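REVIEWER CHECKLIST
Item 1: Sequence provided? yes
Item 2: Single chain? yes
Item 3: Sequence as submitted:
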Amino acid sequence: MSLFMYRQRNGIAELTTRIFNIVYPLNTGIDSLFSDFDMVAVMMTVNKIGAPHFTAQDEEVKYLNFANLVLRGFHLSYLHNCETRRGQVLFWSASKVFYEFTDIERQFHKALYTIQLLFLKLLDGSFQTHMHCCYNNPPADQWALVSGLPTYVAENGLICNIMNAAEDKLFDFQKEPLDESGWTIKNVLSLPIVNKEKIVGVATFYIRKNGKPFDDMDETLMESLTQFLGWSVLNTDTYDKMNKLENRKDIFQDMVMYHVKCRKDVIQNILNTREVYDKEPDECDEDELDDILVKHKKIHTIFEFHFCDFKFSELDLVKCGIKMYYELSVVDKFHIPRDVSDNGNSNPTGDLKRYYTDLETMAMVTAGLCHDIDHRGTNNPYQMKSGNPLAKLHGSSILERHHLEFGKALLRDEALSIYQNLNGRQHETVIYLMDIAIIATDLALYFKKRTMFQKIVDQSKTYESLDSWTKYMMYETTRKEIVMATMMTACDLSAIAKPWEIQSGVVRRCRILGQGDLERTVLEQQPIPMMDRNKADELPKLQCGFIDFVCSFVYKEFSLLHSEITLMLERTGRSGTL
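Item 4: Structure as written out by the authors:
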């Protein structure tokens, strides 16, 4: 007796015997209608013992139902083994799909040990092998492509299961051994890899380990496996794109640094140490460099409230920025390199320095220098309306976060970093404080924090002396950060408290009307009245409203906290009445 299993391949029913290893397709002349029931197998008996032929009674043997039960049990066991194996392969694949991003071959090499796999990636209509060679007309040594099977699968999106590759008439498989070991193609299973209805590759499996043809369970398993192969294509492509973007970013950053860095000969225009001391800036001590800055009398006006930078050259402003670090006495204390230069302005402290350490004040001054670096001349809402990439990169406080990241990028450069000699804890602290200080220049955040600042001011009045209040504040990190954030807002708006000729000059230099023109012409939108050139006659009234609602409140609360800032409040009120 022989047992024939019933199965389907490529949608065609067939019988196969595990005893003789023979397959009979049912579409080649054999009657396909055997039973009205779900057929799982066929039993065949030959050469009846003791009789010349089988009778009708033989057809109704009583043990047939029992044999049917055994066959069904065997079939269920077979399905169970297939599903178990499928689960093992898919579970292993799922655990490895995100493990290796660089090479898809390495992802599935171990998982597919029962077959030999060739993965072909479809790239711009051509096939790309794991060796990263693209072929439109493959050479003879690329036997998998020469057969035409991957191309057929990619074009038609069909699953092809070939039982006997050597006798197949549709595809031209090489019949001779493919290598010195004598490896030949016997049977093939090829499937498309689909991503959102788009074929991105073809996975072709050659020769089962037991040498038998692939069956319908193999097709189901491999069809599921191609989903992981598709994810792997996505992962490796994404990884490759990320690497390219990272390389482009590094190139762009190098280009920016090339134009931003100050050359050593330019540094001598600021700190002419070669002429005075016959040595480089990094070889001079703090007193020697301070003496060079003292000789520039114009720089001393930085300590006066009416300081105005309009008449200063860029190099003079750099000297002012350097002078601030010497005024804080942090150059030697934190070993700031002498040949690092920066640009910036200065503002009086109003005795608020008493709350902060030297490290914290250095972080705040650096944040002040970086808080508007690489400004685009437009505000945050314009970045969002225009679809600027910065708006996509930073969800809120768009320009402030750009200034912060740009400043950090400069400070990461060894030739520009003034923090390079800080220890790990100090470096972490100054970067954290810079984050708070620069982001605080977003007025939208100021309105959220000013109630908290008011409570701090009210609390200060409950202390008997300034010294006791100072001791309390020095250890209140959160309150210090709120005061620092409000200080950044006050400094950012400080032009309003300057003498009239200075603040009017600052206003004339603002490009708010220019942004209004851009909104009207480029975005085809109506700008807000303060930026609308057609409503310039309303500008004084709008500015007075801004002074009263925003500026006056800041300086009023600070003057209650420290009387030294009362002068700024008085000048702000005077500006609103001019």
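Item 5: Key structural point noted by reviewer: The mean pLDDT is 75.
Item 6: Recommendation: ____
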